[in-house]
Amino acid sequence: MHKVIYDTDPGVDDAMALLFLHRHPEIDLVGITTVFGNASVETTTRNALFLKREWNIPAPVSKGASVTIDPSREERPWPAMVHGENGLGDIDVPETIDLPLDPRPAHRFIIDTVRAHPGEVRLVAVGRMTNLALALKEDPEIATLAKDVVIMGGNFYVPGNVSPVAEANIHGDPEAADIVMTAPWKVVVIGLDVTAITTMSRSYLGDMAARGDKAVKQLDELSQFYIDFYKHAVKDGMMVHDSCACVYVVAPELFSSISGAVRVVCGGIADGQTIVKPDGRRFPPGGAWDGLPRQIVCTGIESEKVIGLIRETLLTA
């Protein structure tokens, strides 16, 4: 069993990924930590509690960061045109959910859980990396105690989606992402290089909903707004960004990758760009790449098999 903390900002594709983590038989979802991104942290936390209630997920929810790790960064508008005003495709969601939150802030929840299960916890982070960076700042030793970190974010050999060079999760808090990438733990980066070519059509999801239970039907409903947004890039379907990171946890053989040090540009016109120095490439000493850990950057994916595994898992009620 893979012990997973899911760090998320629900978010439509976050919801699909959450249901995957909840239903896969090899995953023990030990916690859900929330962060701002697709909406304010108040909204993403409410959404996490809503999905926990609707889908009967036992994992505790812990509320996380509401601002970037560098508080001087100006917050941009929430991407309501992607996920809807309420973050869940504007389906009917109550203003408040009568479920308790874990009393600890998300970064403390991460620290305590990793320390309670040394070498076992996998952090699956599909939003801004702020909670992980805060955990590292408070307790740097957790980098040696977590099993690994699997993130959805970044882009290396394809364009970005919020600027020509930057992907949204990294662009939302570049300083936090650079802290996470350069810490001495194993990071697997599932970025737009693989997620942008892994799509699920409206009819495919509709067929799943017809075969599935209430949760899958609800997932189909809340995804319609998101699918409509993606019409500029996908023919009547959506990219399943966050679920790709979750699939990696149980089926890494469906991905191909390179390894090397990863840095994030902080500031300027390339703000949020992710850059890998592939292993084997040599540069003059004294640069920004010296002495950094080797991380894994996914560059290829067997998309049809990934979509098939998502379907199989979601239909396992």
From TrEMBL:
Signal peptide region: none
Top-level taxon in the UniProt lineage: Bacteria
UniProt keyword annotation of Hydrolase present: yes
Domain Inosine/uridine-preferring nucleoside hydrolase span(s) in chain numbering: 4-306
Cellular component annotations (GO), alphabetically ordered: cytosol
InterPro entries, per database record: Inosine/uridine_hydrolase_dom, IUNH, Ribo_hydro-like
One Gene Ontology term of the molecular function aspect: purine nucleosidase activity
PANTHER family on file: INOSINE-URIDINE PREFERRING NUCLEOSIDE HYDROLASE, URIDINE NUCLEOSIDASE
Protein name, UniProt field: Nucleoside hydrolase
The organism of origin for this protein: Rhizobium leguminosarum
